[in-house]
Amino acid sequence: MWARELDAVHERFVHRFSRSEPRDSALAYMRGLIAPLQRKNGWTLAEEAGHTGPDRIHRMLNRIEWDADEVLDDVRQYVVDNLGDPGAVLVVDDTGFLKKGTRSAGVQRQYSGTAGRTENCQVGVFLAYATDRGRTLIDRRLYLPTSWTDDRERCRRAGIDDEVGFETKVTMAKAMVRHAIADRIPFRWVTADAAYGFSKSWRSELERADVFHVMATTRHDTVVTRWA
């Protein structure tokens, strides 16, 4: 079943690649990600795909030009076609990816929900789509601390464009929900923890847009239930 569904997802975005090699590598990469591997890196994913080394997957990820946002749009439409529900819930949360070095984009010592403590890590903000029939991620943003956005040369070395500036995690969450609304993704609720629920401006924005929302907040916060 998984193989058939992966093929169906792959068919949605395969046209984004102009050559057969990255098309095949993209499918191999997806299959490797859901395979029961103890470690998942270029070498182990290549071995799972039957490649002699990680070069093909590395080329697809790092060297061949393709638009990740366009692929995400295709995958999001696949999700809507298969799980779309006007009563769906959009779930906002962030998670950390532990790292040992200093070169990965956005990495620094910061709080990681994955580890439950401050660690050297990257942090991503994600938007999940949840219905009675299933749940999956439909959007993402990589959080770039000011230690990165204030150092443009460091950003360039990591492949980050000069126009990419600092954004708070709440700003990223707002952008993803706005994108879902603009794309007419069917949903009824937005939910998030206190790291996002503390934002009065975002709660106000959702209230004015008539978007139902359930958010955690602090015990000292003031909650307004209706806006003039």
Q: Give the CATH topology of the largest domain.
A: Nucleotidyltransferase, domain 5
Helix content: 40-55%
Strand segment tally: 6
In total, how many domains does the architecture comprise? 2
Characterize the overall form: globular
Ends: how far apart? 51 Å
Radius of gyration: 19 Å
| CATH C-level name of the largest domain | Alpha Beta
Unreliably modeled segments:
none
Order of helices and strands: HHHHHEEEEHHHEHHE
Structure classification: alpha/beta
- Largest sheet entry: 6 strands, mixed
Named at the architecture level, the CATH assignment of the largest domain is: 2-Layer Sandwich
Strand content: 15-25%
Mean pLDDT: 94
If helices are DSSP runs of H or I spanning 4 or more residues, what is the number of helices?
10
Describe this structure in words.
The protein is of the alpha/beta class and 228 residues long. The chain has two domains: 1-66; 85-228, Nucleotidyltransferase, domain 5 (2-Layer Sandwich). It contains ten helices and six strands; from the N terminus they run αααααββββαααβααβ. Strands 1, 2, 3, 4, 5 and 6 form a six-stranded mixed sheet that branches. The longest helix has 16 residues, at 68-83. The radius of gyration is 19 Å and the shape is globular.
Keywords:
21% strand, 6-stranded mixed β-sheet, 42% helix, 6 strands, alpha/beta, 228 residues
SSE map:
Blueprint: H1 2-13, H2 20-34, H3 42-49, H4 55-62, H5 68-83, E1 89-98, E2 108-112, E3 117-131, E4 134-143, H6 146-149, H7 152-157, H8 169-182, E5 189-192, H9 194-197, H10 200-208, E6 212-215
Parallel strand pairs: 1-5, 5-6
Antiparallel strand pairs: 1-3, 2-3, 3-4
